[in-house]
């Protein structure tokens, strides 16, 4: 990796040097030269400036000169060396560089895909054959054969649930059979979500591998989830410090439900009976929710209410007895409403790499990315026998010198990837080949980001934006010191005295030969 950084620094230096001769100086303030590119960058951002109009150009040159004189004053006072200035500029530089490392349209499409899937909830059953932690190819093959045998039994006509429960009873630590009422896109493994959303109701999948094992999946129901509810509830629980039997609690709940249905004041009932302290002072009102957001008995009772104002019979959950009142039914929120929440959820979860994938793929294409499959297969062969975090894997992999990938005009050998795995073992995959693949994708993504950031050092737009922010901080600080922190009535006189002082202190020369021929430089 160090070789990469050295090479990039040399390339950047050469490029920067070649650019200097194509960017003439248009102004000198004291001993500091101002390049034409900076002048044009700032002038083009001012819609009131017409650089091809002589009078407009002259006015702008005078403003630009004043701007540069004030910056010279700020630099002479060494404002740029303060801790505040350095921290502020570094923070902006990081934010600006990061803004070049995203594809907003790509992110938006990923979020929209999740949004569209979320309109439909799937109820599934699955038989899971667990992989051991740090499993190798031989482990996976053995477990896959178990899963395949189970799938063949079910395909031959045996009952899905019966097969699953029998296998789970015989192997309580390695096999799980369970029903899942609702699958949410961002709360399940991507491999599972991709598979089940392509299946029809009643269909049974062949073994599907996720990071934790092999799944045989049956889709039980597909629910068009276009409804959100808002309800209020009264929670009947035992009084603090007392243990009341279930029958007593049920009788209280029935009395409260009957009173509510008979027209008793709902707010008064909530205040008197509910044990949900978080909603007691707000008429028992809960936030809007869809299917899968509440415990199942509560959800079923709420969605069974037909009309706004309807009140349920007592509903028992693990929390106690609830009396539910329907306040509102609304459709599925728009994508625009949900997009920020979806993106935030993706960024914080297992799917976060999906957001950056469109951007990384575009950059790989621009950088002529190629992966040598034969070289990668050599690493996979080692991973078949040793987990990539084991010292034996590293000792063997670091001796491999074939080019693993080519990108941005440079080859990256196998041993550099082995070094990366040792230095940054970040994957959470438990199967060795999955771990290797996951680390490789992360390695390539980080290389892309490093290369982009290095190219930014010679990108004119990026350089000008950094310089603009740099000068903006200086201008603010010096203007505040010399003028703005003084009484308002003194500002005009202080400004004039300051400019007179600066013009006497610094010699300014303007290259009118270039400025009068801007047609040649303006695109």
Structural overview:
- This protein is an alpha+beta fold.
- The chain has 20 helices and 13 strands.
- A hairpin with a 2-residue loop joins strand 8 (315-317) and strand 9.
- Residues 1-21 have low confidence and may be disordered.
Mean pLDDT: 91
Count of helical stretches: 20
Sheet of most strands: 4 strands, antiparallel
Distance between the termini: 39 Å
Counting DSSP E segments of at least 2 residues, the number of strands comes to: 13
Structural class: alpha+beta
> Oligomer, anyone?
single chain
Radius of gyration: 34 Å
Give the amount of beta strand, in percent: 15-25%
Sheet with the most strands: spatial strand order? 4-3-6-5
Low-confidence stretches: 1-21
Q: Assign an overall shape.
A: flat
Layout: helices, strands, pairs:
Elements: H1 2-20, E1 25-29, E2 32-35, H2 36-44, H3 54-76, H4 83-99, H5 104-118, E3 120-130, H6 137-155, H7 160-170, E4 175-183, H8 190-196, E5 208-210, E6 213-224, E7 227-236, H9 246-261, H10 266-273, H11 296-304, E8 315-317, E9 320-331, H12 335-348, H13 352-366, E10 370-371, H14 373-383, H15 391-397, E11 403-407, E12 410-413, H16 414-423, H17 432-456, H18 460-484, H19 491-505, E13 508-510, H20 512-515
Antiparallel strand pairs: 1-2, 1-13, 3-4, 3-6, 5-6, 7-9, 8-9, 10-11, 11-12
Helix pairs in contact: 2-18, 3-18, 4-18, 5-12, 5-13, 12-13
